[in-house]
Specification:
The protein has 2 domains: about 5-50, no CATH class; about 60-140, DNA Binding (I), subunit A (Orthogonal Bundle), CATH 1.10.30.50. Helix content is about 45%, strand content about 15%. It contains 6 helices and 5 strands, in the order ββαβααββααα. The protein is elongated, with a radius of gyration of 21 Å.
């Protein structure tokens, strides 16, 4: 007997079913992922999702958010460097260490270099640091591709 699982887009388990038509219906609607899973693997996966709680969903939610933002504007919020899904990082506008929240209202896409340089600074502090004339020119030049 085949068993199918239906996951929501964030990795939460919605349904287990033996009905292939029901599983395929979820997948066709594009809202869910449905797949055939051997019984032992299904038990392990259900246990993993249950134990991981929001961790699985949070990772998938962050990746989906990045993909949606890149589709709108695929550049770093600070230096305007082009980003891909793999090169983009989520920067916290108000750093977590300074009391910021870890949700979409406090996220911005940035490149790894800007995210690292911003660190625990607020956006205002970071921009003040990089916009002084001399520092800004050096900072911007450091992002230019090397001449071949």
């Amino acid at each position: 007997m085949k068993r199918f699982i239906v996951l929501d887009p964030f990795g939460g388990l919605l349904e287990e079913t033996d009905d292939v038509n029901a599983a395929q219906g979820h997948a066709r609607r594009g809202q869910y992922v449905a797949c055939h899973v051997e019984p032992e693997a299904l038990k392990a996966l259900v246990a993993f999702i249950s134990e991981a709680g929001d961790n699985v969903g949070a990772r998938l939610r962050r990746r989906q958010w990045k993909a949606e933002r890149i589709a709108i504007d695929p550049t770093c919020a600070f230096c305007r460097k082009d980003l891909t899904l793999s090169s983009a990082t989520i920067d916290h506008l108000v750093p977590l260490a300074e009391g910021g929240v870890d949700d979409e209202s406090n996220w911005e896409l940035s490149c790894q270099k800007c995210n690292s340089e911003k660190g625990r600074l607020s956006v205002g502090e970071f921009l003040e640091r990089v916009t002084s004339a001399r520092v800004f020119r050096e900072w911007l030049a450091s992002r230019e591709p090397a001449a071949a």
